[in-house]
Amino acid sequence: MPIRQYLTNEATFEPKAVQAMSDALEQTCTALHINGQALVREVIATRIIDLARIGVVDAKILSDRVIAETTRPVCALSRGLLC
What we know:
Elements: H1 15-31, H2 38-53, H3 59-71
Helix pairs in contact: 1-2, 1-3
């Protein structure tokens, strides 16, 4: 599913970047076994768009970053531990 539905009017990207983001969304959802979970898919799409806004427009890098962020253990901040 293309990422276009998650883009707002304020977000403008070159067609090549939109294709890379769409590919990253599909790759990420496949890797994380996200099937039909609309809210989770939207969160992933939003993170991909955020990364693209700061210049990350390679599909594999986008997907790898989001997967890494998603699977990172939760920090025990209240104990002063850093991840």
